[in-house]
Design brief:
transmembrane, membrane, 14 helices, mainly alpha, MetI-like fold, Carbohydrate ABC transporter permease, 2 domains
């Protein structure tokens, strides 16, 4: 057993202190937003730093969840996250598995073409013209189809599939499975860590989609949550949510409403991570080590 010196102990203590301070710096803004969202508007209007809600209230959340536009935007973001993630995992895993099979004709040429898409990005204008010519303007599919996969994701998942022994595939073929059945029944169940990792990445990207929605979605009825939140943050009142400053005798403070909207937009992704953590901790190293 190696005995720790005074310098080693000091180094560890300093690192722990720095990590604690860094954690507090990242957590405090979210905690402050939560405190303001739960604080009575009259208390907030008095000014000062609110470390905890002196007068607890849920009126800000009730107000938001009663506005049709906000509820509709949550439905749009949920649709994008669920459908976009499912289709993205299917397309990425199918393409990566196909390219991991060495018997595929033209495999190297296809890999080279995918590599080109990583090195050279077409840019905003060609993408916009492509979406327009495909007739996808003001369609939610304009936010899903271009994000089904990426060259980087394909290469990472392909590296994971390369680590799966080909003897499993050969045994399945002997038992009568075709390529689709091998991919669906053998490969995917063995790839849960990779699927969980990429699924989380896809879900976060679709839930937080903003720039593409600004470009392609002009109908406010189809705005995702982030666009509605942006609209609320830049306006001087809560007209984006369809409400008034005074409702049934209750004072509605725009800042408190905005804070509540931020919390509602953040909670779903924070709730998803614990369910995927078991697989995520394994999947973050996908393709980095080959056995």
């Amino acid at each position: 057993m190696i005995k720790e010196t005074f310098t080693d102990k000091l180094f560890d203590r300093v690192n722990i202190l720095l990590l604690i301070l860094l954690s507090l710096a990242m957590v405090f803004p979210l905690y402050y937003v939560l405190s303001v969202s739960l604080t009575d508007p009259k208390e907030y209007l008095k000014g000062g730093l609110i470390l905890y809600p002196h007068k607890f209230t849920l009126e800000n959340y009730k107000y938001l969840l009663s506005t049709p536009l906000f509820i509709r935007s949550m439905g749009v973001s949920t649709f994008l996250a669920v459908v976009g993630t499912a289709l993205g995992l299917i397309v990425t895993s199918a393409l990566a598995y196909t390219l991991s099979r060495k018997r595929l004709l033209g495999r190297k040429a296809i890999l080279l073409l995918i590599l080109v898409t990583i090195l050279f990005h077409p840019g905003i204008i060609p993408n916009y013209l492509l979406i327009r010519d495909m007739g996808l303007m003001n369609s939610l599919w304009a936010l899903i189809l271009p994000a089904l996969s990426s060259g980087w994701n394909v290469f990472l998942m392909k590296s994971f599939f390369d680590s799966i022994p080909e003897s499993l595939e050969e045994a399945a073929v002997i038992d009568g499975c075709n390529d689709v059945n091998v991919w669906w029944r053998i490969i995917l169940p063995l790839s849960l860590p990779a699927l969980a990792t990429f699924g989380l990445f896809f879900a976060v990207a679709h839930w937080n989609v903003f720039f593409n929605a600004v470009l392609y979605i002009n109908d406010f009825q189809k705005w995702p949550l982030q666009l509605v939140l942006r609209q609320m943050l830049i306006e001087s009142n809560t007209s984006a949510g369809g409400g008034n400053m005074l409702e049934q005798g209750q004072i509605i403070n725009p800042q408190s409403i905005k804070m509540a909207a931020v919390i509602i937009a953040t909670i779903p992704i924070m709730m998803v991570y614990p369910f995927l953590q078991k697989h995520f901790t394994k999947g973050v190293m996908v393709g980095s080590v080959k056995e």
